[in-house]
Design a protein that fits this description.
Two copies of one chain form a homodimer. The first copy, chain A, is α/β, with parallel strands linked by helices. Chain A is built from 15 helices and 30 strands. In chain A, strand 21, helix 14 and strand 22 form a beta-alpha-beta unit. The longest helix of chain A has 21 residues. The first copy, chain A, starts with 9 loop residues before the first helix and ends in a 13-residue tail after the last strand. Chains A and B meet through strand 1, helix 2, helix 3, helix 9 and helix 10 of A and strand 1, helix 2, helix 3, helix 9 and helix 10 of B.
C-alpha cells in the first residue's frame, strides 16, 4: 500500500494503515470536554499542544502537530518534542480571527531507531556491516522522497554506507544524514489522533480590556436633569483620562411603565421615577430603540464615533427580557409563558415576584423565530458600530441559544466580543464560556482573603479553565457593593483596584461610584447601593479632590506599558510570611517583562513580611542582586536572594507594583574595568 | 411535537427537542479517554455513574441513568440523585458477562419546579389561586401519561387542586401527588448525553484471584529428572493447600535449539541444557504443541481437569515470539523482518542481542493472516479448557492487535481472562489495560516504602485508573528477585506477602522460590535469581520446615473469608506516626466487612507507633469502644477512639491483619440490665 503523503489528510492516513499502525495518541490538550467545545486564544497567541504519544516496543517515534486556519485546506506542520513520561509538545501561533483546527500525527521513526542502534553498536565495538546496509536502504528510500540537492546528498550518504571504504565511519552516522532523514521521513502506518480539535481566535481585546461602566442618565452636567448620550460624549475625556478603553453602558432602551420600581427598588413608584434600565420595553419601543430622554440613534452613533476617537469602544448591554409594555408582548405573545388565568407569567423566584419583567420562554414552539429576533437585536447594534456586548444574566437563557447566536453574529462581525454576566454556580458559568462567550464575570468580588484569591486564580489561570474562560474582574458593579468595600473604605478600594487590574488582563469598574469610593449600602448585610443608580438618576461630583481617578489612571498606564499584565497565563503566587500580604507575579513567555505585585489585604493596619520569589522562574540569576522598580512611586530597590522584607501602609498606598529589572550595573560595566 | 417516551431512544429524543432542550450533561464518569475504551467491572459489581447536570435558570431538573446489556434493546432506568455542585449520581448493577451500555438523560422537572414554588408561596402566605390551577394542569397531563389506579389518583389530585374547597390545602401539595408525578414525569425536551458509554463485565475471577507460578519441569519427585505434567498433577494438593486458585505455568511448548541459552543465561549452552521455556518453537512444534518431555495433550487436559477438582484453574503463558527453529519461520517467512543480508532479524536492544528469539513483525503486509494465526493459538488452548492467559511482554506487540484479539476470543469464550505482563512505562501499561487486558502486572515489586506504596496504590485504586486497570501484585517472579527480598530475608518475604495479598484483590507468587525464601541473586545489583529456573531444572525441598506455606495458607484463607479483600475499591490508607509502619483498610460497600492491615516495612527492627483510624469511614461509633480481631493470631483487642498503639517484631510476624468488630458487649447487653 502507498505510504502517507507529507501533508496527510488525517482520516485517510489512519484508514490506510489498517492493523499495522503501532503508535497510540492519547490525552491531547487543549481539548475541552472531549473536543465538544473550542479552546480560546487571541490573535498573536501561541497554542501549546501536548499529547501522550507512544508505540509498542522500543522503536523511536516522531510526532507532528497539524494545524490549519478554517480558510485553509492544507495542514501546516510543527515538529513535536518529547517531554517526560511519553508526553510530547508542539506549538503554533494563531494570527487570524476565526477558527483554527489542530490534530496530532505520529509514526515509528525508522531512521532514528536505526541510528540509535547503530551508534550503540559502534560504541560497543560490534560488527556493523549488515547494519550499515540497513541504513543505506533507509537513506535510499529517503532519497526517493526527496528532490534536487537533498536527493543527491541522500544518495551519496547511502552509497557511502554501502561502501565500507568511504563509509560513514565507525563513529556513528553523519549528523547531516540524520537532519536530511528527519526532513524526508517515512511516515508509513502513521497514527492520527481521532479528533480534529478547534481553537477559536478572537481579537486582542477579548483578552486585554479595561472597562468603565457608567449610567448615561446620570451624566447631565446640571443636577436634576436627565442625562443624555450627548452628555456621555462630554464625559468621554474624563473616562479616557483614566486609561479605560471600553465604555460599557447599561441598557439604553425605553423603560416600561407597568410595575415600574421606585427609588431604592421601592414597589410604589411615583410618576417621576425613572425606573430600571433593565426593565426594557415600552410604547416608545423595545430592544432596538433608544430611550427618548437619552437621545436619538444619531446621537448614539456619534457617541460610538467620538468614543473611538478617544481610544475607546462602546459596549452595550444585551438583556433579553421584557416589561409588560414591550412591543413583543403583543406582537409575539407565544414567546412568553401563560399562567392558567390567561395572564403572562412574570419573573419570580418564590416568594419573590418581579411583575415588571416577563422572561422569554426558550421552550416556546416558536423558538426558531424567537432566536432569529434575538439575533437581529445584536446585529442591529453591530450595524451601528458596536462590537462589544455585555450580556445580562445569560444563565437564564438556554445554552443552545448562545451556542448558536454567538457564532451567528461572528459570521458577520468576526470582531464581536461577548461578556457573560452570570453570577451563578461554577459549572453553569463555565458552560457559558464553553458555548462561546468571549469573557466572563467571575467571583472575584467575593474573593478577599489571600487563600481565596490564590485558590480561585490558580483555578482560573493554571487549569483547563484557562483554555475556555477569560475572566473579567469587577471589584464593584451596580448590583455588587461588597462588604469589604463597605467597611474597608478608601484603602479597600485601592487594594481591590490593584488586584483587579493586575490579576485580570480584563477588568472593569462601575463608576464614578468606584473612584469616589461610594460605599453606603441600602441595608445592613445588603450588597445593594443606597440610592442606587439602577432606580434613580444620580448627580456625581466627578472631580472631587479625594477621587481615585489619578490612581486609576496610573494603574491603567502600568497595564498598558507592561505586556505581562495583558495576559493571564503568566500568573504565579509567591510566599509571604504574613496572611494579610499577597504577592504574585505575571510574566511574558520570554521573561522580558516581569511584574511583581504585593498587596496589603488589611485595609486597617500596616502589615509587613518577607516575600519569597522563585528567582529562576522570574528569569533572575540567584547569585546576582537585582533591581525592583516600583512603578507606582518610581522608586527603585536593590534586592538580593529570594527573600525580601516589605511593609505596606493602607492609608497611603496599600500595594507595590514592581517591574523586575534583571541586571543592575556593577564594576564590570565600568568602561575601563578591564 | 410529541413528548419523549418513558423509555427513550437517546438519539431520537435529542433530535426532537431541537433548540428547546435546556439541560446540559457534562463530565460523565466513568468515561475512559472520552469513551474510546470501556470501563471494567465483574459480575455482581455496581457501576456508579456521575455527571455534571444542570439547566439554565432556576427550574428543578430530573436526571436518569439509562443502561442495558448488549443483548437487550430497551434501556433500564435508574433515578439519579444530586450530590453537590451540580454533580449527580446513579448506579446500576451488572449481572452478566459481556458489555453493558450506559448514558444519561435529564430534563426540566416541571412538576417539581411548581411544587417548590407553591410551597414557598404558601409559606409566605401569598395568594396561590392561579398556582393551584397550574399544578392541576400538570397533574392532568400526568394523568394522561398514567393508567389504572395511578391515573385515577392523579385526576383526583388535579380536581382537588382546581376546587379550593377540597384543595390540597395551603400546607403545600400532597406528597403522594409528588410521588405519582415523579413516576409519570413529563420529559419534554430532554437532553441526552451525546455518548453511549461501555462497561465490560468479566467473571469474578478477573478481580479476585490467587495465583501460583510453577515450572512444570522442576516438579519431578526425583532429583535430576525432567518434570512432567503428570508431576504437576501430583503437586496440585500442595498448591491447593496454600489456598491458591490459579496455577500459572510458564510456556509448555517445544524449546528451540539455535542459540539456546545455558545455565544462568550463559551464551554457551551445553547439549544437556534445557533452554528457556520462553524460547518457543523447534522441530517438535510451536505454540500449539507441548514439549515432548512434559507429556502429551492428553496429560495437559488431565492436568486441567485435576486442577479444577482441586479448586484451581490452569493459566497458560502466551509469549508471541519464535526461536529460529519455530515452524513459522519457514512456513510464514513474511511474518519476520529481514536484514539486508537476507537473514531474519533477531531481537536486539543494542548493544544486546537475543539471537535465540525472532520477534514477529506487526508491520508485515500479511498482518491479517498473522493476527488470525495468533488468535488461533489462544483459541486452541481455550478448546483444551484453559480460560486464563498470562501474556508475556504484550507491550512489544501492537496495541491494535490486542484491541482486536481479546474481544475476538471472548466472542467464543466470554469467561476468558488476560493478564498483561508489561513491565514498561506507565502510559504503555495503562494503554494495554484500556485496549482489553483483564488484569495487569504492576510496579508493586519495586514499591517498598510507605510513601511509595501509598502514592502508587492511591493512584491505582482511587483515580480513573481503577475503572480500567485491575492490578495483579507479584512480590517476586522468575525475572524479579527484588533487593528488598535479597537483603530482608524471611521477614521481608512475610511483609511483602501480606502487602500483596491485602493490597491486591489479585496477587500471585512464583514458587516454591517464594515460600522457601530463595533470595540469592546471580550478581550483585541484579534482580536475576542465581541458578534461575528459566535456564535449568531445579529440584526443590518443597516441605522444608522453614517454608512459609502455612503462613501463606493462612493469609489466603483470610482473603477468602473476608469480602473486603476480594476487591480493590475500598482501600484507604491511615496515618501512623512511624514511617516504617504502614496501615490501611479495605471495606465492603455496606461496611459489614472491614479489614485493617498494619505492616512493619523494616525487616530488621521492631517498630512501634500510633495508628489513627477514621472511625466513621470504617462504620465505627467514635464514642464506643470496639473490638479488633487479629486474624493471624486470633487475638482480640479492645480499642477506643481513633488512636491506638502497636508494636510489630519482624522476626515473628511483621504484620497485623485485623477484622473490625463494630460493637462489643456492654452492661446494656446483660439480660436484666433494664
Amino acid at each position: 500500500m502507498a505510504s502517507a503523503s507529507t501533508n496527510p489528510n488525517p482520516q485517510r492516513v489512519s484508514t490506510m494503515s489498517g492493523g499495522r499502525c503501532r503508535v497510540a495518541i492519547e490525552n491531547v490538550r487543549p481539548e475541552i470536554d472531549g473536543g465538544r467545545f473550542p479552546a480560546k486564544r487571541v490573535v498573536g497567541e501561541r497554542v501549546i499542544v501536548e499529547g501522550d504519544i507512544f508505540a509498542d516496543g522500543h522503536d523511536a517515534i516522531a510526532a507532528m502537530l497539524l494545524y490549519r486556519n478554517e480558510g485553509e485546506s492544507d495542514w501546516h506542520e510543527r515538529v513535536m518534542q518529547p517531554l517526560v513520561n511519553d508526553r510530547w509538545r508542539g506549538e503554533f501561533q494563531v494570527d487570524r480571527i476565526g477558527n483554527y483546527y489542530y490534530t496530532v500525527t505520529a509514526w515509528v521513526n525508522l531512521f532514528e531507531s536505526w541510528r540509535r542502534g547503530f551508534a550503540k553498536k559502534v560504541e560497543a565495538g560490534q560488527d556493523v556491516t549488515v547494519d550499515r546496509l540497513a541504513g543505506a536502504e533507509l537513506a535510499e528510500l529517503g532519497a526517493q522522497r526527496a528532490a534536487g540537492k537533498d536527493r543527491e546528498s541522500l544518495e551519496q550518504f547511502a552509497a557511502a554506507l554501502r561502501s565500507k571504504a568511504t563509509g560513514a565511519g565507525e563513529s556513528g552516522p553523519d549528523p547531516r544524514l540524520a537532519a536530511l532523514m528527519e526532513k524526508y521521513q517515512e511516515r508509513r502506518h502513521a497514527a492520527v489522533y481521532d479528533k480534529q480539535l478547534v481553537v477559536n481566535v478572537d481579537r486582542a481585546k477579548a483578552r486585554f480590556g479595561t472597562w468603565y461602566e457608567m449610567f448615561p442618565r446620570s451624566c447631565a452636567a446640571q443636577e436634576g436633569k436627565h442625562g443624555t448620550l450627548q452628555d456621555c460624549i462630554a464625559r468621554l475625556p474624563y473616562v479616557a483620562s483614566m486609561g479605560f478603553d471600553v465604555l460599557y453602558l447599561p441598557p439604553i432602551h425605553p423603560i416600561g411603565y407597568s410595575f415600574r420600581k421606585g427609588k431604592n427598588n421601592n414597589f410604589a413608584a411615583s410618576p417621576e421615577d425613572v425606573g430600571s434600565p433593565w426593565a426594557i420595553g415600552a410604547k416608545e419601543g423595545g430592544h432596538k430603540s433608544i430611550h427618548p430622554k437619552l437621545g436619538t440613534l444619531e446621537d448614539f452613533k456619534r457617541l460610538v464615533t467620538k468614543a473611538k476617537e478617544s481610544g475607546m469602544e462602546i459596549a452595550l448591554d444585551i438583556a433579553y427580557q421584557c416589561t409588560p409594555d414591550h412591543p413583543y408582548v403583543k406582537e409575539h405573545p407565544q414567546w412568553f409563558r401563560k399562567r392558567p388565568d390567561g395572564s403572562v407569567q412574570y419573573a419570580e423566584n418564590p416568594p419573590k415576584k418581579y411583575q415588571d419583567i416577563y422572561p422569554l420562554d426558550f421552550e416556546t414552539d416558536d423558538w426558531r423565530a424567537l432566536w432569529e429576533e434575538l439575533r437581529s437585536i445584536i446585529l442591529f447594534w453591530a450595524e451601528q458600530g458596536v462590537r462589544i456586548f455585555r450580556v445580562d444574566n445569560p444563565h437564564t437563557k438556554s445554552f443552545l441559544f448562545w451556542q448558536w447566536v454567538i457564532p451567528e453574529v461572528k459570521k458577520s462581525y468576526p470582531d464581536a466580543i461577548f461578556l457573560a454576566e452570570a453570577f451563578t454556580r461554577p459549572k453553569v458559568m463555565y458552560r457559558l464560556a464553553k458555548v462561546g462567550f468571549s469573557q466572563s464575570y467571575t467571583y472575584f468580588a467575593w474573593r478577599n482573603t489571600k487563600a481565596e484569591l490564590t485558590e480561585y486564580f490558580t483555578e482560573l489561570t493554571r487549569t483547563e479553565v484557562a483554555d475556555f474562560l477569560r475572566p473579567n474582574l469587577w471589584p464593584n458593579t451596580p448590583d455588587i457593593l461588597t462588604e469589604y468595600l463597605q467597611f474597608g473604605g478608601r484603602p479597600a478600594f485601592m487594594a481591590r483596584l490593584v488586584l483587579a487590574a493586575t490579576l485580570g488582563a480584563s477588568y472593569g469598574i462601575y463608576g464614578p461610584a468606584f473612584e469616589l469610593c461610594e460605599n453606603t449600602a441600602r441595608d445592613p448585610g445588603s450588597e445593594e447601593y443606597l440610592n442606587s443608580e439602577k432606580y434613580e438618576i444620580r448627580h456625581w461630583d466627578w472631580d472631587r479632590a479625594d477621587s481615585l481617578k489619578e490612581f486609576i489612571g496610573m494603574i491603567n498606564r502600568i497595564r498598558r506599558d507592561n505586556p505581562a499584565l495583558r495576559g493571564d497565563r503568566g500568573l504565579l503566587f509567591h510566599n509571604v510570611d504574613n496572611p494579610e500580604l499577597i504577592c504574585f507575579s505575571k510574566r511574558t513567555d520570554d521573561l522580558t517583562n516581569v511584574i511583581v505585585v504585593v498587596v496589603n489585604l488589611d485595609p486597617h493596619h500596616i502589615q509587613s513580611g518577607w516575600v519569597e520569589l522563585p528567582m529562576e522562574d522570574l528569569g533572575l540569576d540567584p547569585h546576582q542582586p537585582f533591581q525592583m522598580h516600583e512603578l507606582l512611586t518610581d522608586a527603585r530597590y536593590l534586592w538580593h536572594g529570594p527573600k525580601s522584607y516589605l511593609e505596606l501602609a493602607p492609608q497611603s498606598v496599600p500595594a507595590h507594583v514592581f517591574r523586575v529589572r534583571h541586571r543592575i550595573r556593577r564594576e564590570q560595566d565600568f568602561d575601563y574595568f578591564l
